[in-house]
């Protein structure tokens, strides 16, 4: 096969056009624009999250499209890396193409500029000097040197030339700035996951799927592990107190990949300091680093923003988590006829593990210990931002004015509402999974929180991680326990106890109202009270039918409301509701007295505190129908085990990026603040001289300098 001269010429034209395109400023600006848009997308959308999170956020349709476009890992997407590579090539061609010309221009004096060329410059003038052309040239040269110019003089018998230049570093600024872009991009590529992706694409490595991340490190095949010689990575390592690890985890959208380290990290002790509010102030890890090649051990302390550098790997204190705290929970059955505090039992476990158990109705469940928090900082002020839950705090007029002004001055991020942050104690998070694999997540506080002036136990529940916790508020008794409310709930489900409570309520109310001697009135009152308490307890046919239609547990205020809507005319419903609630509160009061008797407690006095408890307890009894849990667990005791989360990074391009940033700063400074200026002075004969001046950027300083030279030389100075 022969290649004709026409083919060779076409090939040369193609190469010339390609180089022209790649080295053009328009092409580089277009690439920078695309990279900027991609960076905005990568900033708005969280990167490298589990794919399930994106499905919950965007829906399955758009999640699939965005994933196909690589928007969930923009900075490692093939198209982003390709654009970045083209940018590096484009800017490199720009530098290689223009730098020699600029360097030559910096060295050049441009002594061959003719008189016509000087007169073509906008800034020129003629002046007369009484000195000879040689002496005049020496005089102007000396002045220019004093003004900071580099000067070259050409002297002849009949004429003279003086060339001066200053600010040639502005062209170095162009070279520095463009070289900086290349260095920063190359450093970013080196510090990214380019090497990791290269091993996945060409080295036989693969990502470990999310559904297999529970495997032991020793069980993971080698194709999911990167060697310790991997030149660049950014991974996380989880180390509990007393534990040791030599492998880190690189997260990806579809799973993860294991990064082996050239050393192991043993967490000897983890320290955390808190503010008075309970928020973390400082956390630090005492570690033992063991080199796997030499066996050399060294102790160190790693703090936030104070990393440890070992064998070119930076170890940062990223965060801290639970490292497998040992928990003891007391389980209270919530379903079945036998639920009571007497049927409660203890369950032990560790965070991250699970245990099998059965409810009192024989159903099997799996209790998964999800998390434990020894401190919880909450804002306990009321909705108005007042620490006083009753909102009755008083202050003077002057103090009020000062507070109002303070609320409106200062930072724009400051809120006018008062916050009262308190540590409300430990909490436990767990999942209760049934035999079919369905699970709900729960979050319960160990200690009661004071809400609306009384202690409340909070039992949270949510269907999935995408939802917020919804809390069942249960009032604590005088011993700050659940015993009275749980016993009251048990007695509420006992028909005989309800009957006894109704009879006592009817008799007491009859005596108070003066109709205890009227059997008919007592019978009507008993009937009304029994209907109310059976509806509330979910023991009536109406409550059961209504609950089946709504898909909830029978009883509560929902059953009472449904009955009123069906049986009472609309005009009389409000009055009927008031009567029914009064009757209900009276019957529940009697049930509470029986509950206290079973707990060997004295009868409650009908004071304000008792009324607040019974109202809160009644609301909790109603809300419990919407708390989908066969068992409720209260944290009894714990043994905390902390764990550190370290970020380990190997960044071969870090110094390159730092150098690029330095060159970029110098380059921009040189281009914007060091404009190039050139001066030519040419003798014309008979004492006449031509002065010409040019600059790369016209500024007021340049105009003032030119005017100064013009005035001084024309005046003979």
Write a structural description.
With 717 residues, this protein is of the alpha+beta class. Among the domains are: 101 residues; 92 residues, TATA-Binding Protein (2-Layer Sandwich); 118 residues, Tick-borne Encephalitis virus Glycoprotein, domain 1 (Sandwich), CATH 2.60.98; 145 residues, no CATH class. The chain is 41% helix and 27% strand. It contains 18 helices and 27 strands. The strands form six sheets. Strands 15, 16, 19, 20, 21, 22 and 23 form a seven-stranded antiparallel beta sheet that branches. Strands 4, 5, 7, 8, 9 and 10 form a six-stranded mixed beta sheet that branches. Strand 26 and strand 27 form a beta hairpin. Helix 2 crosses helix 4, helix 7 runs antiparallel to helix 17 and helix 14 packs antiparallel against helix 15. The longest helix has 30 residues.
Instruction: Describe the oligomeric state of these chains in a short phrase.
Output: single chain
What is the 3D form?
Answer: elongated
Into which percent range does the helicity of residues fall?
40-55%
Mean pLDDT: 83
Which structural class matches the secondary elements? alpha+beta
Biggest sheet, in brief? Answer: 7 strands, antiparallel
- Total number of β-strand segments? 27
Q: Count of helical segments?
A: 18
Low-confidence blocks of residues: 382-416
Cα(first) to Cα(last) distance is 77 Å
Radius of gyration: 41 Å
Q: What percent of residues are in strands? A: 25-35%
